[in-house]
Amino acid sequence: MHTLIVGSHQTGRGPFIDRLLSALGPELKLYGYRSVKEPPGEDGNCPIYIYPAAGERLRGQDNLLGWCKAQRATVNPEAFERYACLIEGARPDGLLVLDEIGPMESASPRFCAAVLAALDGRIPVLASVRDKDTPFLERVRTHQNVRCFTLARDNAETLYPDVLDFLRLQIKGHFQSELRDRA
């Protein structure tokens, strides 16, 4: 089972995942991606960037996913296509972080396919998922290999220990299974 943190805009899914990753420790190898929405520029647009989960937060045209202004997104599907490799390249010696999966991803068939393939796979996944009603997000949230934890502004503290325990069990079970398979 994979761990999905589901919530609406501004519920703190990113910081919640930061806290989980910190508790899991720096020795855990991280694959996948993180995304960040920057503060608005003079034009009112907030640029959104993608970068490797364990990498530097470099920002440039190549990893610019799009812009958001007044809850409306302009998508750069080519960036999603380029960065699908962050999901496809995950190895079984770590955790696959997908932060975040939202409506913008629907513009990239390769990215969507990579996410769904990861959920079909054995590498443990920790993902932040928007609660928007799109066909792709519905497929992610209802996937047979996921457990969804719904994060709201008022439940982070009570939800955290349950999510951390579940995630630790999934990671431990995965590594034990990998060791058995290698023997």
Summarize the structure in words.
The protein has helices at residues 13-24, 77-83, 85-88, 109-120, 135-141, 156-182; strands spanning 2-7, 29-37, 46-52, 64-69, 72-75, 94-101, 125-130, 146-150. With 183 residues, it is α/β, with parallel strands linked by helices. Strands 5-4-3-2-6-7-1-8 form an 8-stranded mixed β-sheet, sandwiched between helices. A hairpin with an 8-residue loop joins strand 2 (29-37) and strand 3. Helix 1 (13-24) packs across helix 6. The chain is globular and about 55 Å long.
Overview in brief:
The protein is α/β, with parallel strands linked by helices and 183 residues long.
How many strands appear in the DSSP assignment? 8
What characteristic shape results from the CA principal axes? globular
Helix and strand pattern: EHEEEEHHEHEHEH
Going across the major beta sheet, what is the strand order? 5-4-3-2-6-7-1-8
Approximately how much beta-strand content do the residues carry? 25-35%
Biggest β-sheet description: 8 strands, mixed
SS element count, helices: 6
Quick check: average pLDDT? 90
N-end to C-end Cα span: 23 Å
Structural class call reads: alpha/beta
Defining traits:
183 residues; alpha/beta; eight-stranded mixed sheet; 6 helices; 38% helix; globular
Topology:
Elements lengths: L1 E6 L5 H12 L4 E9 L8 E7 L11 E6 L2 E4 L1 H7 L1 H4 L5 E8 L7 H12 L4 E6 L4 H7 L4 E5 L5 H27 L1
Parallel strand pairs: 1-7, 1-8, 2-6, 6-7
Antiparallel strand pairs: 2-3, 3-4, 4-5
Helix pairs in contact: 1-6
